[in-house]
Amino acid sequence: MNVAPVGGTAVHDHVALAEIELCGELIIAASAADEDRLSADRIDEVLRVAEERWPRDEGSGEPRES
Q1: Residue 15: alpha-carbon gap to chain centroid
Q2: H/E/C letters for each residue in the chain?
Q3: pTM score > 0.70 for this model?
Q4: Rounded Cα gap, residues 49 and 29, in angstroms
Q5: What are 15-66's pLDDT values in tens digits?
Q6: CA angle, corner 36, sides to 28 and 50, nearest 5?
């Protein structure tokens, strides 16, 4: 049987911490925005998902073909 250690040691969930950080980035971007809502493109920019989904060829700026 596995028992959590006693003594106040915290278990860190790195995925949850990353999600909290991303939510914070969105809140900061939304509070700084002039418009009522962030566009989908702005949200992608804040979350840096475009780089993850569509890696660019160096130099051309065009999406790399898989």
Answers
A1: 10
A2: CCCCCCCCCCCCCHHHHHHHHHHHHHHHHHHHCCCCCCCHHHHHHHHCHHHHHCCECCCCCCECCC
A3: no
A4: 15
A5: 888 889 999 999 999 999 998 899 999 999 998 886 655 555 555 555 555 4
A6: 55
